[in-house]
Amino acid sequence: MLPPKKRFVRAVALLLAVAAVNIVIVVWYLGRERPLSSIFNYENLFRLSMGHGSTKDYSIFFKGLEDYNPEISKLTSNYNNKKAQEIKTENDEFLMSKEYLESIIDLPQAAVAKLEESHSNYIEVHMKTLIEKHGIKTFGAIQPHHAEWASEYEGSRGIVMVGGDKYSWLALLVIKQVRALGMKYPIELFIPGKNEYEAHFCEVILPALNARCNLPEESFLEGIKSKFNLHRYQFKLVAFLTSQFENILYLDADGFPLVNLDYIFESELYKEKNMLLWPDAWARTTNPAFYDISGLTVNESKKTVLNAYDKKQAADKAAGTTEETPQSGYSFKNAYFHTFEGALPDPTTEAGIMFINKTSHLKTLLLCLYYNIYGPDTYYALLTQGAAGEGDKETFIAAATVMGEPYYQTGKGLKFCGYTNKVTSEFNSKSLGHYDPIETYKSNDPANDDQLKFIFMHLSYPKYYPDWLVNNRELKYDDGEDKRIYEEAYESAGYDFDLRVFQIFVESLCSSYYDEETGKPVDGSSALKDTDYVGDHLKYLRQHVQFNENSCKNVFLSHLQYLKESTPEKYSDKIYRKNV
């Protein structure tokens, strides 16, 4: 018989061996059913590899933020009469003067003083503490002294989107388009809560597309949502903060690239500016008090832009000529306030797509976080005054301007794209086309350069919810005739964009698109039900399964067939999912 000490050692060894075998069996068993990414949470591994927990690291950005609450009455309740006029940039009749912009919201000087104090303290105390005391170097948890900074983070590039609930469905369509274009960078889909995380979607469908769900630790996420009452618009900054990428291409869930956008990361323009933005359609309506609050100065003696209003007034004064008013003739009273030196650019900004470096623009993102935390009651209203698209969209360019960090907003405005209704003969806008920033930067006169092409489309109306398409008759006239709604995008894309979007939509939604026995599409295309159909795997779609299937059989499949049969000849060799 072995002595007690040796028996103890042998027993311990046996227990360890059994435990090791059990671990191997469990990992093997789970691995049969799910990919490795679902067994090991990559985001947690990424955090743990840095030697600290996610809540501690991310929460430091929010710790003490309540100390900088301006504590004024909600600006959204302080409109004097009406919200700001929604004026497009080409409008040459309405004057967005300083006086007009100051008249929209009742903003007492005492409130301005509180806003100025809290804004200044956030920059001088909170941001300085993060950067100087805590050594924050990028907008995220990883720092240069971690081994992963050099090996994984520095120079990394990827696409970030915000999903959850019905937005995961829209985002999937964009992700499939990104891959159809051959874009190579990985994709993160931010999920704003555990209740919106869907296992099969996140752990099987997305990894097959080189994408993954980013679900931050529940205690951190629920803590900041509760403390600051965060909602949909505000999640974008949390998605940026928790992203594993240093360089981000952000896409809204309805922002469809037309072409492969990877080249923009490589461009000299991006390397120089590290922040690229696109203009919206609307004239800027920011309250002039924002400049006092943020410490910016608008120079009345130097006008930097001659817009449509200026040119119209000059023409009227000069009896039909286009003679321009000299600099000395412009003032805050007779010209658009936001065409003077130091003001935020006019037009406003479309924040549904942007490129940004989280390290070079750390201060921009820190200030942007502040604007969004106190956005709904204060800064959204201050920056937009109730005009079109009020939300987070102006906070990025505002923060970059205040912090003096470089950016480039594409020099050619968006184009409303759509079709002419055969019944009413009216133009129906269905999407927004946005131009190549690199080409506009090179152009001597980008605003009037007709050779510039779109590189992405914002499919703002309709959004690709099945009930929206059917109930609003977006695809067919009342007599049953089919429509094409994106023809203006074809030349820039180099293919039939209507067909591309709808092919992705149908193969993802419609089980009746596939033969029951083979799982192959009934029209002979190269999709496969096992890999392309997601109708059973998203809660949003499962909630409307009968409506969706009826719509597939009665509307969607016939519309797809129409698009395939009517593809213009010049694009016939560029069809996605050709019949095999």
From TrEMBL:
Chain ranges passing through the membrane: 12-31
Keyword vocabulary terms for this entry: Golgi apparatus, Membrane, Signal-anchor, Transferase, Transmembrane, Transmembrane helix
GO cellular component, one term: Golgi membrane
Principal localisation: Golgi
Bilayer disposition of the protein: Single-pass type II membrane protein
GO MF annotation list: alpha-1,2-mannosyltransferase activity
Associated pathway: Protein modification; protein glycosylation
A Pfam family the protein falls into: Mannosyl_trans3
GO-annotated biological processes: mannan biosynthetic process
Cellular compartment(s): Golgi apparatus membrane
Gene3D superfamilies the UniProt entry points to: Spore Coat Polysaccharide Biosynthesis Protein SpsA, Chain A
Family affiliation: Belongs to the MNN1/MNT family.
Protein name: Alpha-1,2-mannosyltransferase Mnn5p
Species in which this protein is naturally found: [Candida] railenensis
